[in-house]
Amino acid sequence: MKLFIFLIQIILVCPELKAEMNRSRMVPVDFPVALKTDNSFEAKKWIPTDMPASQDPYSVMNRLGDRAFFNLGESDLVQTNSVVRGAHNIEKSMRTEMTVAGTDPKKTKHKFSFQFLPMQTVSKAEYKGWLNASYIMDFRAQRSTLEFTDQLWSKELFVNHVVDATNELSNVGLRWKW
User: Fold this and answer.
1) How many CB atoms sit inside 10 A of residue 117's CB?
2) N or C: which end of the chain has fewer CB within 10 A?
3) pLDDT digit string (tens) for 100-149?
4) CA Rg, the chain, in Å?
5) Contact present, 155 and 174 (Cβ < 8 Å)
């Protein structure tokens, strides 16, 4: 902080100091990481195209920022980082799946899945069989969600119950994809 204040004072006190660049002496910089050099830019990957034109600018910037961080996290540069690989290994080791099936292939298979995501402070338990059920506990947000879903024609019937630090909310509804 002291260095920052010192530099601001120098800039304000000495406006006659100017930096000049000699372009003939410039050399290219070699980066130790191989960067992707193709010029392909997938606009749909970065820019949300499903937003209405009347949406406020703050929510547009939120969506752009979310997509940018998601794409950065999925990039090869980040995925090859040892810290990120370690976090993925921890999350994989904290996931357990169990399938219970009878000898008859026509009978329902029951699949149980348990996962703890320490980097996100979330634990999940899921069941798939006669219906789909999930329980998610978000320790950071102090919120738990219990949801039951089942296919109803081409739609999905759901019942969920959300409890957080301030209130409880139960929903019954129908979901479908366009």
Assistant:
1) 16
2) C
3) 887 777 788 889 999 988 777 889 999 998 889 999 998 888 899 999 99
4) 26
5) yes
State residue 16's pLDDT score.
55
Average pLDDT over residues 152-156: 84
The CA-to-CA distance between both ends of the chain, in Å, stands at 53
- Tens of pLDDT, residues 4-13: 666 566 565 5
Q: How far apart are CA 145 and CA 132, in angstroms?
A: 14
Alpha carbon distance 111, 81 (integer Å): 33
Q: What is 10-36 written as a DSSP string?
A: HHHH-TT------GGG--PPPPSSPPP
Instruction: Give the closest residue to 142 by CA, choosing from 164, 115, 126, 121.
Output: 164
**With helix as H, strand as E and coil as C, how does 103-151 read?**
CCCCCCCEEEEEEEECCCCEEEEEEECCCEEEEEEECCCCEEEEEEEEE
